[in-house]
Amino acid sequence: MADLDGTFIEVEVTSDAASDVELARKLEEVCPVDIFAATDSGVEIVRGNLDECVLCELCLDAAPDGAVVVRKLYDGTELKR
Amino acid sequence: MRFYEFESRRLVERAGIPVTKYGFAKTADEARAAAAEIGGPVVVKSQVLTGGRMKAGGVKFADTPGEAAEHAEAILGLEINGHMPVGVLVDPKAEVEQEYYAAVLWDGRAKRPMMLFSDMGGIDIEQVAEEHPDHVGRGHISNLHPIADFRAKETVARCGMTGSELGRATRVLAGLARLQRDYDMTLAEINPVARLADGSFVALDAHMEMEDEAVGRHRKVLESIGVDLSEPREDYEPSEFERNVKAIDSADHRGVIQGKDHGFHGNLGLVIGAGGGSLTLTDAVRSQGGKPANYAEIGGNPSVAKSKGLAMEVLKKDGVEKIAVMMSIVSNTRVDIVARGVIKACLELGKDPAETIAIFRIPGAWEEEGYKILDKYGVEYADRTTSMWDAAGTAVAKIQGGAQ
Ligand code: SF4
């Protein structure tokens, strides 16, 4: 079997953006599959939901350019602004 | 959806088809009262959604209301094929001169309802059709135009009936045809229709099955005849597979999955669906010599988790060696999402997706993205240029050790 673990999507938020409480609320609101959770200190990635990502790019639209990257692990490409 | 005999009787009565006086009873005392109201000898019948009532002692004759109560008491406590009765039907022991058969069912080949009538009722209609084809009249009707009595008359006349009998039987069959259409029945059957000593025609026993999707539309009528819509109406206990698939479906609003494995004992698991695709693909697998392990339906853009859930349940079934993931062309269901789900199912069960998924044939929305995922995991897939028939053939060949 190929050395593949069945993870399809990775989402990264830059450290500046990750501690932005206002942005965290926006990301939580726009993502249709609950990949972002807003906390008192910023945003957390809900890892259990990562593979539900529908590649809609709403998180990219909601965040400043470069703040969020959605990575497709199966072909190595990225969605980013 | 299947109906108990007493519910079918109420539907028939509602449709204006004559029935004899009858009573539905949930207790021995109610059965006694029903028998007294009818007057004379009666028959007390267990109300269960299974066959073999007579043999199991679920049908008994009584000459007095007291005897009817005694029989009801015994029948109400009698389990038949794992089913406890919801009550008993108390019918008069009718003086029947002749028995007939009337039915209206959906003819899938003609894509329209078909009426059936025979002057040899009370016995298995398939046997009559085989041994006495001239005693079975058939006639199709339109779902678009009003049902004309003469269509029913033609059907009845085909088994040789004439005169007043023809007129009376026609009214029963035409009424049944309207009932079938008005209530979205996949089967509306009266067997027997009886001609009594006074020449009247009555429905003695009826069997109705309603299209499941139509139940919501007829909720009011069903409730008015006493149907308990919360009660499961399967004629068997759902398997662990069926219960698990249902639970996964209920827990996640995204998309729809269904799974059935009653009567399936094969080695090829099916994760199939989309616009009639499930039936077509199950037939295709069988016609290609394969042995499906289950029937399934997946669609409506399920989540990765839901797709994974269905695939895992299929893979966990005893005897399943591989799965075939196939649909007709999808529009809102996303190919990449289903691909992620079924691959995850394999990996979480420690199986290699490339070995386990015999074929992935889901053309449609986001297919290019899906194909990238399948490529990555080495899963063989087919696009819309491969027919469902050929995709099924590939899966069957693989599981039989043929083409790889
Ligand atoms: S692309 Fe869409 S689904 Fe994916 S993380 Fe961003 S908002 Fe959520």
Explain how this protein is built.
The complex is a heterodimer of chains A (81) and B (404). Chain A has 81 residues and is α+β, with helices and mostly antiparallel strands. Chain A has helices at residues 15-18, 21-30, 58-62, and strands at 9-13, 36-39, 42-45, 68-72, 77-79. The longest helix of chain A has 10 residues, at 21-30. In chain B, strands 5, 6, 7, 8, 9 and 10 form a six-stranded antiparallel β-sheet that branches. Chain B contains 15 helices and 15 strands. Chain B folds into three domains: 22-92, ATP-grasp fold, A domain (Dna Ligase, domain 1); 96-224, ATP-grasp fold, B domain (D-amino Acid Aminotransferase, Chain A, domain 1), CATH 3.30.470; 240-399, Succinyl-CoA synthetase domains (Rossmann fold, 3-Layer(aba) Sandwich). By secondary structure, chain B is an alpha+beta fold. At the A-B interface, loops of A face α12 and α14 of B. The complex binds iron/sulfur cluster (SF4). Iron/sulfur cluster binds at residues 11, 30-33, 35, 53-59, 70 of chain A.
Question: What's the short story on this structure?
Answer:
With 81 residues, chain A is α+β, with helices and mostly antiparallel strands. Helix content of chain A is 23%, strand content 26%.
Task: Please name the CATH topology of chain A.
Answer: Alpha-Beta Plaits
Molecules bound to protein: iron/sulfur cluster
Estimate nothing, just give the exact number of structural domains of chain A. 1
Q: Radius of gyration of chain A from the CA trace?
A: 13 Å
Any idea what the CATH architecture of chain A is? 2-Layer Sandwich
Please give the count of helices of chain B: 15
Cα-to-Cα separation, first versus last residue of chain A: 35 Å
Strand segment count of chain A: 5
* SSE-based structural type of chain A: alpha+beta
Question: Quick one: overall form of chain B?
Answer: elongated
Instruction: Say what the CATH topology of the largest domain in chain B is.
Output: Rossmann fold
Largest sheet of chain B: 6 strands, antiparallel
Radius of gyration of chain B: 25 Å
